[in-house]
Amino acid sequence: MTAIRVALVDDQALFRAGIRMLVDSQPDLEVVAEAGDGREGVAMVRTTRPDVVLMDVRMPVLDGLSATAELLADPDPPRIVVLTTFDLDEAAARAIRQGASGFLLKDADPELLLATIRTVHAGSSVIAAAATRELFAHFSDSRLVPVPRTYDDLTQREREIFALAARGLSNAEIAAHEYLSEATVKTHVSRILAKLGLRDRVQLVVFAYEHGLA
Q1: What are the φ/ψ torsions at residue 204 (nearest 5 degrees)?
Q2: CATH no. for residue 168?
Q3: pLDDT at 149 > cutoff 80
Q4: Domain boundary at 53, 88, 122, which?
Q5: Do residues 73 and 19 both lie within one domain?
């Protein structure tokens, strides 16, 4: 089994050392690089091509928000999880709108951090779905954006799956709710993302909130 390649971008060396020890203790995970600021992080990620990046929001030289935006503009970018000190952090909400795959509190339990890396890499569910919904409920603009015509291209079945995915349900949870196989749900979600031009499931949650479909 090929290990999931992880990169760390954080200005606190002691924090990085702790995360590296935790991640490297897992047989299916591997830290391939780390950086102490956003500018160094962008260069490092482009060189080492990790699968998942843990990105601190607040750093010198180039902050995590700007670094995330630069990396997500690249072709075939990695999955990025932003790290924040506050559970309702507007910077985290902005990073997710830009295309980050989720956010995580820096004092999160070790098991949650490990599960987050695996979840983001698999793309099968939204990290901390309730916290993500709360984040967007708190920071969403009250002026809803009109629903794009691409939403009309979804079949009735796809809209039903969309509604459940927008609530943060995983493939397994949707499958149980709708009496479908996980493979069928995965196919539906992939088609929904393609039709709406969305990168992953957390972007689906953002889309739902911004267009009043949550």
Answers
A1: -65, -40
A2: 1.10.10.10
A3: yes
A4: 122
A5: yes
Residue 80's domain spans which residues? 4-122
Residue whose entry in the numeric block shows the structure tokens 């954080």: 10
pLDDT in tens, 183-211: 999 999 999 999 999 888 888 988 888 88
The total number of structural domains in the chain stands at 2
Concatenated DSSP letters of 46-68 = HHH--SEEEEESS-SSS-HHHHH
Look up the pTM and report it. 0.83
Regarding whether 190 and 157 lie in a shared domain, the answer is yes
**What residue type is 65 in one-letter code?**
L
Structure tokens at 160: 């039903």
Backbone angles phi, psi at 105, to 5 degrees: -70, 140
Contact 106, 19 (CB under 8 A): no
What's the rounded Cα separation, in Å, for the pair 181 and 172?
A: 8
